[in-house]
Design goal:
heterodimer, A: mainly beta, ten-stranded mixed beta sheet, nine-stranded mixed beta sheet, 3 helices, globular, B: alpha/beta, Rossmann fold, four-stranded antiparallel beta sheet, 12 strands
Chain lengths: 287, 272
């Protein structure tokens, strides 16, 4: 594993350990890099547009956002001989985070996201699957409390045959927070033998919290496999009772069930340092 | 003093009285078997003892080692030594089995259990119930087969070491070897000066278990007490002889045999 670091501070790049960032085109260029891990820190970042191009590479991208981030549009292109595993951590934000991400995916794109920020987040991501066998897997775990508004729009566009997408988004909504999860999968004419699955789950911990999910499939081709499911509700009382019968207090049992929404994130992580960081972020915000 | 003492227990669910005056005394080293047709209150009794919030105690008392169980929360009952192996253990995705077990053990301890001791006990327990060890790294009961869920209940019982083990139809979905492991686990409880209260319809299970006391529940009341010979008779003749010989009316279970109807089918049936 080779490690690289890039830091965007205000309107400049203050650290670029492997000279990956092209300042003229505002593009992170990754070509012929196998098993590269890039840690990107957006610290009070005021860039409005960034691009990333990945060719003949296998990349792990760890993105952290902190401070006051200006609305950021990002375009990523992944070639058919490449894969990108992106891990996003939204934790120490001082203001609302607004991200729009357009992914032109000819290879494999996996996006794992942990949002435990106190502030509002608007996250819009559209992935086009453009080459046969191109694939996209999304897992997001989101926590919203106080008066935060979290709006997640995830869109997949299957444009050719034999593409697949899988989207799992789990949320916990507390206090007066509002959470909206919208997932749309478009299977275009000609994209036969495509597979698209969506799963969304939100727990509203109190009556004043409001979580809602819109899972939609737009299918314009025969011979495809597509499924979606969603559930929105309060903590499952049968689960609470079961845990209590094993000695957990009401509060302990509830906390265990809340954390259970975040547990699946670990199955996507291998790096010990990253696992520790995720554990700390979850414990700090959720207890 | 009895380990568990139940006096004139009346229990309601959604305004309907299910238990209509249960009296039961359980002492250390005793294994009690509860029999009766479906829908007559056996599971309700176990759940009421454990404190299932859906069940409202309208009259009567339950004491455990002289303490008023009805004043205890569910977790306090568990920590006091009560354990209920559920008929349908729920699937809880995201709660990892091994972490759940370790945390459950620690709820009973002042100092957390040592990792070595926990792993050793967990390995022994999974081996005894014939489950692969990797099942402990999966989410709690998530995607488990019926038999795996029941075995997992027994693993929990072995690790949590209760004094009063209550098992609600634990035998369903288990083969004979697994039943032997269940019996051995109950015997461990008895050897620790504990006792057991078991619901089952399966004579083979009772043959292995050899309960010391047998009770028949009909329409929310214990209508007959006896020893293991009662089980043999019920296995051969069913419950109808109770009406003929003892003039006891047997309430038939009118609940639907299917799991449920989908919303559309319900609407169609309403219109018919």
């Amino acid at each position: 594993m080779k490690n690289a670091k890039i830091t965007f501070l205000n309107n400049a790049v203050t650290l670029d350990s492997n000279k990956l960032f092209n300042k003229i085109t505002n593009t992170i260029e990754i070509i012929d890099k196998q098993d590269l891990v890039i840690n990107v820190l957006y610290d009070n970042c005021s860039f409005s547009n960034l691009s990333m191009v990945i060719k003949n590479s296998k990349v792990t991208l760890i993105e952290e956002y902190q401070g006051n981030i200006k609305p950021l549009n990002m375009e990523i292109e992944i070639s058919n001989d490449s894969s990108l595993f992106r891990f996003g951590l939204y934790e120490n934000l001082e203001t609302e985070l607004k991200l729009v991400r357009i992914i032109k995916n000819y290879g494999y794109y996996q996006n794992v996201l942990l949002d435990v920020s106190k502030n509002s987040v608007s996250h819009e991501e559209e992935t086009s699957l453009l080459s046969p066998l191109s694939r996209c897997d999304i897992f997001s775990a989101i926590y919203a409390n106080n008066k935060a508004v979290k709006d997640y729009k995830t869109k997949f566009s299957h444009q050719v045959v034999h593409t697949s997408s899988d989207c799992k988004i789990f949320g916990i909504c507390n206090d007066f927070a509002k959470m909206t999860i919208t997932t749309d999968a478009y299977i275009k004419k000609g994209a036969s033998n495509t597979k698209a699955t969506q799963e969304g789950r939100i727990i509203n911990l109190v009556d004043t919290a409001s979580g809602i999910i819109f899972p939609d499939l737009h299918i314009d081709e025969n011979d495809v496999e597509a499924a979606h499911s969603c559930s929105v509700g309060s903590v499952n009382l049968d689960h609470l009772y079961y845990l209590q019968t094993r000695g957990f207090s009401y509060e302990q049992a509830k906390s265990l069930l809340i954390k259970s929404y975040f547990t699946p994130i670990y199955q996507y992580l291998n790096d010990k340092e990253l696992i520790d960081k995720v554990t700390k972020a979850i414990e700090k915000r959720i207890g | 003093m009895s380990l568990l003492s139940i006096k004139n227990l009346h229990v309601e669910v959604e305004g309907k009285e299910i238990l209509k005056g249960i009296d039961l005394e359980i002492n250390a080293h005793e294994i009690h078997a509860l029999l009766g047709p479906n829908g007559n209150g056996k599971s309700t009794l176990l759940s009421a003892i454990m404190g299932q919030p859906k069940y409202k105690i309208s009259q009567g008392s339950i004491t455990y080692k002289g303490k008023d169980v009805l004043k205890m929360s569910v977790d306090e009952r568990a920590k006091a030594g009560l354990f209920l192996a559920l008929q349908y253990p729920p699937e809880i995705p995201g709660v990892i089995n091994s972490e759940f077990l370790k945390a459950a053990i620690n709820t009973r301890l002042e100092k957390p259990v040592s990792l070595y001791r926990f792993i050793k006990e967990l390995e022994d327990a999974t081996k005894e119930v014939d489950l692969p060890l990797d099942i402990v790294h999966r989410s709690l009961n998530d995607g488990f087969s019926g038999g795996e869920k029941k075995r997992n209940e027994i693993i929990q019982m072995k690790l949590l070491k209760p004094e009063l083990a209550m098992l609600d139809e634990i035998d369903s979905g288990l083969d004979v070897d697994a039943l032997k492991a269940v019996v051995s686990s109950i015997q461990d409880v008895i050897n620790r000066d504990g006792s057991a209260l078991v619901v089952s319809h399966y004579a083979r299970f009772y043959q292995l278990l050899e309960p010391s006391h047998v009770h028949i529940i009909i329409d929310g009341k214990i209508v007959m007490n006896g020893d293991a010979s009662l089980i043999q008779r019920i296995d051969k003749e069913g419950f109808d002889w109770l009406k003929v010989e003892n003039n006891i009316d047997i309430k038939k279970d009118n609940r639907p045999s299917s799991i449920g109807l989908c919303g559309i089918k319900e609407k169609v049936n309403e219109k018919r």
